[in-house]
Fold this sequence. Notes:
Elements: E1 16-20, H1 26-35, E2 39-43, H2 47-56, E3 64-65, H3 69-73, E4 78-81, H4 86-93, H5 99-102, E5 108-111, H6 117-129
Parallel strand pairs: 1-2, 1-4, 2-3, 4-5
Amino acid sequence: MSSINAKTYEPAASAHVAFIGMGVMGYPMAGHLASAGHAVTVYNRSAAKAEAWGKEFAASKAPKTAPTPREAAKGASIVFCCVGNDDDLRSVILGPDGALAGMKAGTVLIDHTTASAMVARELCDLAQKQGVAF
């Protein structure tokens, strides 16, 4: 049984995207991206959830799991993030293994976390210094 509802997707150019956070919201959101034909790489702090996602969407275009947020973000044109709170968000975006370390200029970082405006401004400033849109 699929974790996402069946849907017909409009044709769109395929993109390489990353999704960080395979929780109640992130898991199906990443699934819809994969089902729509995008090459999706996922990361989750508990690897078992990422592995389960990879197995469920194995028929999709090149679904992958990554050992770190940095590896998930590497080569992606869009990086989506959906984790628990400000501290969780910082932990997966910042630092040598954070997603921002794997992004090149021109990448778009989209955060779906219910986080504070303070952390959003902080990450936006850091992303912009690297040429990443937030």
